[in-house]
Amino acid sequence: MKEGIPMRHFFLLLGLIALAELLLMVTVDPMMEAYGYPVWIRAMADAGLLALICFPFVLNLQLRPMQMAYHDPLTGLPNRQLFNDRLAHALVVAKREQSSFAVVFLDLDNFKPINDRFGHRVGDVVLKLAAVRIESGVRESDTVARLGGDEFALLLADAESTADAERVIRKISEALSRPFEVRGHTLELGVSAGVAFYPADGVNGMELVDAADDAMYRNKGLKKSLDVPAIQESRLLPNGADSIQL
């Protein structure tokens, strides 16, 4: 059962089939027999109803591996692969419509000390809560992805200027600046951000990702402490990528 339905799901399916068959035996079958339907019609009705009952469960089992392949198992956010797919689609749309969009990389400041001190169980909860707060700062048309560890990426579909991206990042920064209450601990995070715009900072996915990533790490290195509040002035770095100081 390594490549098919997991063993526990297989037995759940058997149990569902047995329960459905029992319900049919005590409800539908007696009614159809009372109306004089022949056995073969009753058998076909049983099979059809059984398939109807089990279909959503089987479909869920088939779709779950696809969901897991494109989403981060911890936060439920799109993973790097799905982010890259959506970035490729955004490039096609932007080229066709001659529009712009932004790629934002986020790195959670102070997460590693929290994870090292309190362990992965606390760290995982912090990441889940951070993901929710980050999602709250974007529109439904935008994409929030977890790339791994404490790094996240945003795809802002209609951002055409630094000010557009700054508004989103400011909202996310303010959300993440609120303390996290996890297992009796009050924990604080910061965030560093790097922004790249199509087409100013790159004309393909790799160029945009590299520009945003580089800007984020330059911004992180410019910080003197984790106490730098909110967003300071955005400034254009030599290669065109915007490094927004948080």
Give an overview in words.
The longest helix is centred in the first third of the chain and has 32 residues, at 39-70. The protein contains 8 helices and 8 strands. The model is unreliable at 1-5 and 224-246 (pLDDT under 50). It has 2 domains: 7-69, no CATH class; 80-244, Reverse transcriptase/Diguanylate cyclase domain (Alpha-Beta Plaits), CATH 3.30.70. Strand 2 and strand 3 form a beta hairpin. It has 246 residues and is an alpha+beta fold.
Helix coverage percent? 40-55%
The biggest beta sheet is recorded as: 6 strands, antiparallel
Which CATH class of the largest domain? Alpha Beta
H/E element sequence? HHHHEHHEEHEEEHEE
Q: Which term fits the overall shape?
A: elongated
**Architecture of the largest domain, CATH level 2?**
2-Layer Sandwich
How many domains? 2
Instruction: Determine the mean pLDDT.
Output: 80
Low-confidence stretches: 1-5, 224-246
Strand order, biggest sheet? 2-3-1-6-8-7
Strand content: 15-25%
Quaternary organisation of the protein chains: single chain
Q: Report the count of strand segments.
A: 8
